[in-house]
Amino acid sequence: MDASVSMRHGPVELRLIRTRDARALQHELISNRRWLQPWEATLPGVQTGIDMRVSIRRLLQQYRDGSGFPFVMEYDGEIAGQLNIWGVMRGSLCSATIGYWVGERFAGHGITPAAVAMATDLAFRDLGLHRIEICLRPENGPSLRVVQKLGFRYEGVRRRFIHIDGDWRDHLAFSLVQEDVPEGVLARWAHGEVPADWSAVPPTDLPPTDLPPTEMPPTDLPSAGRQG
Ligand SMILES: CC(C)(COP(=O)(O)OP(=O)(O)OC[C@H]1O[C@@H](n2cnc3c(N)ncnc32)[C@H](O)[C@@H]1OP(=O)(O)O)[C@@H](O)C(=O)NCCC(=O)NCCS
């Protein structure tokens, strides 16, 4: 893949990461600690700091050896976050995983769905990949919306799958294979043709919600007979 490759959908641009992005990304990561930490991958038993220079060097090495494709997402020309195609498996699998984040001030502008759609189309059309997977914590409502908007198919729960925010966390797995989207992910989304049910998660796979008292289901016990 050409290192100067970039894709655009409206104000959203997806382009390969560069060494000179380190300062802007480091600033976003540090100023968004509270926003990002619950969803950030960690290493078991290891405390790590943020060093984007080292991180970008490692990502570009993965790019050179073909095991990853690291991007930044820009919004109106400003760096909003990162998207990585990682864990590229060739041979009889031809699959990879997509991970992403944006800074809090960029949330809710549809940046990530547009970028994921473009990255998946690139993977299927130009990178020779057949399957793209996205895994997210069941508690991550905004990330769940991203896969729902694009119609990634729900596959199931991966128990204690990735070390996130200091512990092994359950994840919900979603995927698309090339044959699912002959017209492309971005085009299917832009034309409003995403199947509504592909991303449906059974309630039993989602964390229990705390219903406020007014919405508690009715009980057949007479209230006078109940003790605290
Ligand atoms: C998950 C995340 C990448 C979504 O990116 P995004 O570019 O904001 O995506 P969208 O604009 O499509 O918004 C998705 C949902 O986020 C929620 N959302 C919107 N604005 C928000 C805000 N200011 N704060 C919190 N959530 C917000 C909404 O539920 C929205 O769905 P809707 O459009 O149906 O209302 C982003 O919230 C994020 O980076 N979160 C922290 C890191 C993270 O969770 N990474 C993913 C790990 S799997």
Number of helices: 6
Overall shape: it is globular
Q: Any idea of the CATH class? A: Alpha Beta
Structural class label: alpha+beta
Low-confidence parts: 216-228
The percent range for strand residues is 25-35%
- What's the CATH superfamily, by name? Gcn5-related N-acetyltransferase (GNAT)
Largest sheet: 8 strands, mixed
How are strands sequenced across the largest beta sheet? 1-2-3-4-5-6-8-7
- Quickly count the domains: 1
Oligomer: single chain
The name CATH uses for the topology is Aminopeptidase
* CATH architecture verdict: 3-Layer(aba) Sandwich
Helix content: 25-40%
Task: Report the radius of gyration as a whole number of Å.
Answer: 20 Å
How many β-strand runs?
Answer: 8
First and last CA, distance: 66 Å
Mean pLDDT: 92
Element-by-element helix/strand order: EEHHHEEEHEHEEH
Question: How would you concisely characterize the structure shown here?
Answer:
With 228 residues, this protein is an alpha+beta fold. The protein has helices spanning 22-31, 33-36, 52-65, 111-125, 141-150, 185-190, and strands at residues 6-9, 12-16, 69-75, 78-89, 95-102, 131-136, 153-164, 167-177.
